[in-house]
Write a structure and sequence with these properties.
Elements (H helix, E strand, L loop, with lengths): L2 H8 L3 E6 L4 E4 L1 H7 L3 H4 L14 H12 L4 E8 L5 E12 L5 E10 L1 H15 L5 H48 L3 H14 L1 H32 L8 E3 L1 H11 L1 H4 L3 E6 L7 E3 L1 H22 L5 E10 L2 E8 L8 H4 L17 H13 L2 E7 L3 E9 L10
Parallel strand pairs: 7-9
Antiparallel strand pairs: 1-2, 1-5, 3-4, 4-5, 6-8, 9-10, 10-12, 11-12
Helix pairs in contact: 6-7, 6-8, 8-9, 9-11, 11-13
Length: 399
Amino acid sequence: MSLIELAVEHANESIVITDCEGRIQYVNPAFERSSGYSREALIGETPRLMKSGLENESFYRELWEAILRGEVWSNCIFNKRKDGTLFVEHMTISPIRDSSGELVSFVAVKRDVTRERALEFQLQQAQHYRPVGVLGSGLAHELSTPSQFVGDYLRFLEEAFHSVSAQLSTHAELESFARKAGIASEIVEKLEQQREALDLVPVLEDVPGALKGALDGIERIAVIARAMKDFSQPDAEDKTAADLNQILATTVEIARNEWKYVANVATDFDPDLPVVPGHPAELKEVFLNLIVNAAEAIQAAGKEDKGAIGVRTRVDGDWLEVSVSDTGVGLLPGMEERVFEPYFTSKEVDKGTGQGLAIAQSFIVEQHGGTIHCESELGKGSRFIVRLPIAPPTSDGEA
């Protein structure tokens, strides 16, 4: 094996080579680890095997048009591992030409940036976080203060249990030794009777898991409290600087109970996203509506496996774009524009009023000078795209 081949095999980044039709010819071990598929299962297949269903057809069309022109294509993409988990990859595809200059194959170098994006976002929020909102602060205090001391008590009990468990183990060893040596047989018998009466075995087995579950629950309460504090921030009459990454992260957390049983959610937040002038409370309502609708659309599809919801932010020139994609039931042709009409709904009679998207359009277009539109395909899912001007809108509502 040559030095170049060794380097590719040992690279930390995922590397895949395909022919001009996209059929996989080679993957390195990093690609196997990242995707969950073996090399044998991948050879001859296409990368469509990992499609999440969250990217629209124009995304892939632009990708193919670029690389077939011989251009290098680079972007982030939602993909799905063999076990169904969603992740975000940064992928660069380069054309490979032979000695005559003819296009013969493509090489893609991919890096899982899911955790990186999340950490960048968390760091930004840690740097810019400011306690705001009287109601949110009060609710957060009411939840976080008791959860803090309950968590402290649980950690104390956890430490105490491990200490008692170790002592009981030592006593059992001494009891066994005394029985074998014939020492103080009456005391040994009495200890054995007491142990059997207490039936400690299931307690020793179950308590550690119960304590861990309780501590995890307390941490979830703290996360929800922080999200409630942020989500209930009162709106000012005038527009303020709105951090859409933070708004979306909070909204996803608030809506967790709507999607956690039916879908996996992946986020791809641009870490360099600028703030935009806006009304945060209105924007939260818009995105909450889109995420809940996505979860309901997936549930309506009635599939056995969990669906997928993708939330992405990016800058497009003078505009900031947010997309919420799902792998739900989708819409009939021609319904993409009608969903924004007041009282129009694609849901069952008792499942919706048809007001949510009409209000969302009003908030985005009239209050923020932005746009909102839908792309959908029946049986495959929908994608809602919200675009907001980075510069303040003029009096006529245009950027």
